[in-house]
Amino acid sequence: DAGITQSPRHKVTETGTPVTLRCHQTENHRYMYWYRQDPGHGLRLIHYSYGVKDTDKGEVSDGYSVSRSKTEDFLLTLESATSSQTSVYFCAISESSETQYFGPGTRLLVL
Amino acid sequence: GDSVTQMEGPVTLSEEAFLTINCTYTATGYPSLFWYVQYPGEGLQLLLKATKADDKGSNKGFEATYRKETTSFHLEKGSVQVSDSAVYFCALTANTGNQFYFGTGTSLTVIP
Prior knowledge:
The structure holds two protein chains of two kinds. Chain A is an all-beta fold. Helices cover about 0% and strands about 60% of the residues of chain A. Chain A is globular. The model of chain A has no long low-confidence stretch (mean pLDDT about 95). Chain B is mostly beta strands. In chain B, the strands form three sheets. In chain B, strands 2, 5, 6, 10, 11 and 12 form a six-stranded mixed beta sheet that branches. A four-stranded antiparallel beta sheet of chain B has the order 3-9-8-7, with no helix packed on it. Chain B has a two-stranded antiparallel ribbon with strand order 1-4. Chain B is globular and about 45 Å long. Chain B starts with a strand and ends with a strand. The model of chain B has no long low-confidence stretch (mean pLDDT about 90). Chains A and B meet through strand 4, strand 5, strand 9 and strand 10 of A and strand 5, strand 6 and strand 10 of B.
């Protein structure tokens, strides 16, 4: 299994508060991704990174920001959490276009 | 743009039944195609992949063939087991910008 961890694994927060999710990899892969998974929508890309300090927006980036200051860490921040951001968030990594490897997920509930 | 369409679920089968989950794609260029599986409470795991036309990916008794003429990558298994109960995702990457595109997932339940 690829070495990917996500923290926290579960979080409950209140509307309007900032939230940061962390993805950490030990594989030294170049690309890192944040997805959200919701019933009926499958996985939707939020942001991705193609190197340290190099990031780009995905399909559903509004309300989210990311940072990658080191190869191994990719942070996702919900600037002001809303109930519509209640979801399961997955981090993924890849070295090439061949395969993505996924973390275990973070369940976020925004009340 | 690039996209994947897979059959709606949920799918319920009896043990030892034949499984087909349909997947079709739209992409520019020559994408690589993937099937991922997600067991309850877990992240997605790569099940199989194919990187060029007519390639067949296979793993754990599952197979899928990359059909360029029909833009399809259907997942098949000859005899499903209860342990195959999971959600299956078809995905592609078109090798441009390293973005991956996923289908909405098909939930499979296998009953004894």
